[in-house]
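Entry 14. Two folds queued back to back today. First construct below, sequence then structure tokens.
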Amino acid sequence: MVVKLLQLLVFIIFIQVNLDAQTLSPKAKNWMTEAKKLANKGDFKNANKKLSKIIDGFPQCAEAYMRMGSNYYSLGEDDLAERYFDKVIMVDSTFSPEVYFSLGIVQMRQKKYLESAKNFSLYSLKEDVPDEKKHKAQRLSENMTFTYNAVLNPKPFHPESLGEGVNSSKYSEYSPSLSFDESAIIFTKNIGQEDMYFSTKDSLDRFTVSIPMDHLNTYQNEGAHSFSADGRFMVFTACDRKESLGGCDLYYSNFVDGQWSKPKNMGKDVNSPSWDSQPCISPDGKTLYFSSNRSGTYGGSDIWMSKKSDSGTWQKPENLGASINTKYREETPFMHPDGKTLYFRSDGYPGMGDFDIYFSRYSDETKTWSKPENLGFPINTSGAEGGLIVSLDGKTAYFASDIDPNTQENLGQLDIYKFELYEDARPKPTTFIKGIVQDAETGKTIENAVIRITSLDHQQESSTFYSRSEGGFLGSLTAGESYSYHVEHPNYIFYSDFFDLTALDSLYKPYELNIKLQPIPVEETQAQVDSKPTVLKNIFFEFGSSEILPQSFTEIDKLYRLLELNPNSKIKILGHTDDVGSDQDNILLSQQRAEAVRQKLISMGINPLRIIALGYGESQPIASNDTDDGRRANRRTEFILFY
């Protein structure tokens, strides 16, 4: 639409501006005047008849060629328009710089991308043209060069409609979001106003007839939504409400007791007096990405982010920066559950024409975003592409288009499609975990336990989850890695363990964790000394040594904080080995390892009198020593908290 408007304005200029011309006879001058009048009335054919007479008698009249080219463009005859604009340059290359821009436009329409790029570039080098239009020509030249290479190197693209359950023949459907297992979809439908609709898959893997989310929809516009990983927190866009701070604001709702709560405005800490829309919640629930044209935006609209504090409040949004945003428009952010790959649409980077879809990857090492990459042709076209989302395994992308990608037929409204995303544009495959946190003694579920998961491969925290009222939690993790996790609650001894997702069978089958927390003992009797020990599953030593490995320090820090929070408590550190080696050597090694943990806690500030280190060697196995897994379980460090 932007390009078409630009084209129209250019050719109106051609019709209205009087240009220098070869000296004409009085009769030829009358023909020129009549040609102008006819063109202004839209009678381009008869106007060209007059101009042809001028050219027959005055073949060096550049203005006649220029107006002929303009008239043929208006008639949609781009090949003839190109011929006459070329004639202008042949007759007088200095006649008007506008002819180069005009030639670029008609060549672009004919998909002569390199020729178009050349003429836009020549126009941008002219001194006597407006800076703004010179910059437009530079961008168009970059777009045409990109388009030429993109068309020569198309990406695999075989889209299919989501079917009649989602798409209709009358209304537009767009802005899809999926459940982790792709069994349910929520999207926006425009039925004269924007509302949110919901559909699930049947036994044949087809989406059923969608139903409106009446508990959230109103007579005003609602849409452009995003859900937390566990599906219990939702952010969406609503416009022109009484309590809105701007034209469109972000609202949130919680899923409580089987239904969504009354939506609330996210408030002035997140929303602005400007346009705020298109939210996306990060997989760990800690960051909210959205598009806005608020103060501080580089251009038309930028991608912003708001981070959630430890207290649960959303902080003042930050601009994602110049590595993502341009002085044009960036919209529809989608952060994949891998937590690293961002998809968005923009009209500020070299592309196929209007809005194209791009992706960028975040580096934890450099704390920067990679240069955005265009998804390529034919995923991107000369039209305006909408937002795109990608499935958990990174293989399937979903998007909305008003052009049937298979037939190129203009549908008149947006439909939602899916396609297999090519390898280079995929995020890391991601799976999801779910679990429940319970009291080890009573079996009751525990609310608001904090589950922190750390990548053992990268030695950094990957995700943080919180158990709900029924003790459950759900979240996403990158597949193909190993993880440790720590579970904390003020009334319980922390729990730790690790798990391996390097050989996961199915990304859509959750890895399940059943966590039982031991209550912190009360200050009563010495009998607590003999209470059940807690295994420190993420304390590791060099083979056959008592040297603590660096990946153990997180675990020891948890132990330190437990002692700090319970200043009257004492602790036993218990070392154990498998049965490899002599009894005496194993007793010595287990004692040295327990003592190493004790010394580390002392170095952190814990009173030595509060810590007892004991080594039991191989005398207290918890599994058979006949297997590798059993021996691995027996090589452990435990603790008992007592008073």
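Second construct, same run, same settings:
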Amino acid sequence: MFEFGLKNWIFISVFIFALAFFLRSYSKLIAHLQLARADDRMDNIIDRLINTFVVAIAQKKILRDKKAGPIHAMIFWGFLILGLSAVNSVLTGFGVQGILNYLGPIFTAITVLTDIFIILIIAGVIASGYRRLVIKVPRLHREGHSQTEATVILAMIFTIVTSLMFENAAHIVMHGTDTFEVRPIAYALSGLISADSAPIIYEAGWWIHIIVILAFTNLLPYSKHLHVLTSVPNVFFSNTGPTNKLSVINFEDDSIESYGVTEIEDFSWKTLHDSYTCTECGRCTSVCPANQTGKILDPREIMVQIRSRTMDRAPILHKLEKWGKTAENWEEANLEEAEKEIMNKKLIGDYVNPEALWQCTTCSACMQECPVNIEHVPAIVEMRRSLVMMEAEFPEELQTPFNNIENNAAPWAFAQDQRADWTEGTTVKEAANKPDFDILFWVGCAGSFDDRTKNVTKAFAKLMDHADINFAILGKEEACTGDPARRAGNEYLADSFVRMNVETMNGYDVKKIVTTCPHCLNTLKNEYPQFGGNYEVELHTEFLDRLMDEGKIPVNNSTRAAKDVTIHDSCYAGRLNNIYKEPRNLLKTSGLNILETRRTEDKGLCCGAGGGQMFMEENEGKRVNMERTEELLETGAETIALNCPFCMTMITDGVKTLESKVQVKDISEIILESIEA
């Protein structure tokens, strides 16, 4: 069991050197993270462990790509299994032989799976190389970057598994198989190896296997394939709460000297870790609505540039720290010219293109598709915050909605006391006149002022009357939830309205809210709790679906059968709050036939309105709403069903531009028609 000789002394020397070099490299990366802002990511441990197993170990998000997913999964799962073989090789180097044999039947499973996954990894490497070098899948290629690194990594993986296969085959020739050892592939290969050559092949296989593993491990900290080490912890530390959750700024804290992110130190350490973990696979970019319509926004590039800035700036900050200097007084330090050049550069401008930041719709498709849970959108919004609140640099189109929100409590120039004008001729009451209400109907800015959306507001109010729901609205006491300002980076403006709304609703002891706007839903449900506003919040389609199940909404579907409808899922309803089945249930129960788009549900395309884009012009590429409208019209449906006022504006505009006769309706309008048919 224990054999020791010159081979072992050589191995131990190599192993200690490789381990020391790796720890030195990795400790530098950890030190870089410590420069960033603190962020507690150790809450909800059980949820984090479950998420880690589902996303990182089971490869759930990787497998969303039906072609690349299985290839990567084969390699990843194979490396998990072969990890035990690597441990065995290291133990052999230390003179410990055959210790895994004592695992009995478990050793049988290990040996069988090792042989199987060696073949699967070889197949995966070949397939990956074919996709990168022959097919040249667009999302895997960055302009101006070669495939050399990826090719080297694939070659190393191929070498690691093939050397192990020959090592095991030669070992069988030399010693036969142990009691619990079952290696079908290695056993078959052993028939091609002579007894004389077996010792040479075994030693060559063992040395190649272990040396390449050590070289591979030490290459990772200097490679985009660092994700091999960081992906699992990155998933563990990813946000367990709402998608694209934003940090809260305490504007009463006088010690805060800047807002948002101007440099890497302003980011959360998790954002820097995200940048480490990006393997540049391009899944985020391939689903980004801005990028896919010809704009310069590239979520992958933003993460890559954050990593580049970190690797450039962090070592200099560490040097300054040793000298007792800070980033603010770096000019007093005796830096080299190259270091001075780096310190004179800016994250936003020299690394991250500010124009790209303003093209983001905050739809979170990038985050949905990222297989390692990188949080692109919060990073983008944090940089927007610094541009708005510190530099006053933002698209001039945003000045109007910012001013309107500040002066009128809405992005449009309507007086706040006109919010309840739509109720004229209805039985709808304001909370001030009906304090015993059970449910607060949050109408929202669009629902209060936009002529088209007011029809949706009235339709939903009628449906609640049909169901005998005791509800009220805030009316002139309601103000913008802050979503447009918050996603556009004006956190100061949003903060004041969030706190005002929370005070108003808590004054009425609001317990449950229903709204027709997914943007209001997301803010009220997922972000107001951070400000002391804890309510049960539902989107109208969720609410109506339950009422229909309870029989409180009598639908007459006899006249609707066989009529075709297609549905556009709002990003803030679907991707951010997982509301997919409820709107479909409502349409099906109404007797309609749903024709899905080619990109649907959690793979659906944004309408282009979120993140402040509703108020900005698209000056580059194709308009996002036109791309989405064309997809919806491709279905041949008679009606496009929606559940968001932003989407209503964007898709209606698209239909008009294309001169189509297809109707665009909110789902509540469709349900009301079913009742009144």
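Quick look at the second one. The beta strands are 439-442, 471-472, 512-515, 536-539, 563-567, 592-594, 639-642, 663-666. Residues 276 and 670 are 48 Å apart (CA to CA).
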